[in-house]
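R.M. (postdoc): so does anyone remember the format we settled on? I'll just put the structure tokens first.
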């Protein structure tokens, strides 16, 4: 995810006098509500993947990618890898000794298994699959491909927590699956590795995760709580959040407090051993997962109904089981559209704009176009139907 607090500030500052403080800011990510910190767990049943044994919780999803390389013994071997990716998961694989071989992803964010088949060789040791913004890849084709080649399938569900392909949970078909929690849920950090049944005993042999720095957890959590207050209370809460943020930056700089930021673009080897914080565990136990999926689907439907004529989503209609992460649209002047939406109180995500240098320039033109044009509109569970209508109306106004 490319939109961070710093980038949001930069965008706002860059608008100068054209950027009056919006009446109410709609954040691009869900926020933490105070009741989620209660020490007693919710009675809502756990859902996949949280109900799975030996789920290995990590600070980042990238740490789980590192674990998957270890679990499947992929260091020094070739892995078929989609040309459309964030970059940090690729950096993790390369740092772990993997040699990526890139295959095509089309303009609708679907993997081209024919292209992958052409690049399959005796050196191929695994197939890496990414489910984009909650929408499933062709799991039957991916599983058949991996089984026919005699290689393991890794499902990257960092953008697709709580999503299904029909009734099949994303992450349940792979030999190993990677999840990121803080993209879908309001936790300060958190990801996980899930291994197929036959591999689960090997998970216990992986090094035990270390506790993350308290300052990192606290700063992300406080920022999310203040974001929630801003969402509900408007301009005065926005000013409070800004004041606290500036004070926090000063304290971190002054005290040289170690901090591990989430949402960053690059893999850091020194952070690979970190586990998920206790606060994230508490928040995860206080979520109403069916309600989250329902709210996200409702908001996506509302945007689709309002925008399909002028800004249809790259991923198309919402299919059964999908828990959408965002509503992805293609625009010609991405920076301008994001800036104009921010003026209207709508935060967006500049989705995967930067190409990793390991991918040959120009080899995948459809992916290049996706990077240049896709903007993600929020549909998360904090948004009311009125919020979703405001997002849609704002984009319509900007595109006019």
């Amino acid at each position: 995810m490319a939109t961070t607090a710093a980038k949001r500030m930069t965008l706002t500052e860059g608008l100068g006098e054209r950027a009056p403080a919006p009446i109410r800011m709609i954040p691009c990510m869900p926020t933490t509500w105070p009741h989620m910190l209660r020490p007693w767990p919710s009675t809502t049943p756990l859902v996949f993947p949280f109900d799975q044994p030996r789920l290995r919780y990590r600070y980042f999803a990238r740490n789980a990618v590192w674990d998957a390389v270890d679990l499947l013994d992929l260091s020094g071997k070739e892995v078929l890898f989609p040309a459309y990716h964030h970059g940090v998961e690729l950096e993790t694989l390369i740092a772990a000794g993997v040699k990526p071989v890139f295959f095509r992803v089309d303009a609708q964010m679907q993997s081209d298994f024919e292209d992958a088949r052409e690049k399959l060789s005796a050196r191929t040791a695994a197939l890496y699959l990414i489910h984009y913004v909650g929408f499933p890849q062709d799991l039957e084709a991916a599983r058949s491909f991996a089984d026919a080649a005699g290689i393991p399938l890794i499902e990257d569900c960092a953008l697709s927590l709580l999503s299904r392909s029909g009734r099949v949970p994303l992450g349940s078909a792979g030999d190993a699956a990677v999840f990121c929690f803080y993209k879908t849920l309001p936790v300060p950090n958190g990801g996980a590795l899930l291994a197929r049944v036959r591999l689960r005993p090997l998970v216990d042999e992986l090094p035990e995760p270390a506790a993350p720095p308290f300052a990192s957890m606290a700063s992300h959590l406080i920022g999310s709580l203040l974001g929630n207050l801003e969402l509900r209370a408007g301009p005065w809460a926005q000013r409070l959040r800004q004041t606290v943020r500036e004070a926090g930056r000063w304290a971190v700089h002054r005290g040289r407090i170690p901090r591990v930021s989430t949402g960053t673009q690059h893999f850091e080897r020194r952070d690979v051993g970190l586990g998920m914080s206790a606060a994230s565990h508490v928040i995860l136990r206080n979520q109403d997962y069916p309600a989250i999926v329902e709210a996200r689907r409702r908001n996506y439907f509302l945007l689709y109904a309002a925008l399909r004529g002028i800004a249809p989503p790259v991923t198309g209609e919402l299919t059964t089981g999908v828990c959408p992460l965002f509503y992805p649209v293609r625009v010609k002047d991405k920076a301008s559209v994001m800036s104009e939406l921010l003026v209207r109180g709508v935060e967006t995500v500049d989705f995967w704009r930067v190409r990793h240098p390991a991918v040959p320039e120009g080899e995948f033109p459809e992916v290049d176009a996706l990077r240049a044009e896709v903007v993600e509109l929020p549909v998360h569970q904090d948004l009311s139907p009125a919020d979703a209508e405001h997002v849609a109306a704002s984009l319509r106004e900007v595109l006019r």
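R.M.: ...and that's the designed sequence above, right after the tokens. Also worth knowing: The chain has three domains: 5-30+288-399, 56-203, 213-257. The CA atoms of residues 168 and 321 lie 8 Å apart.
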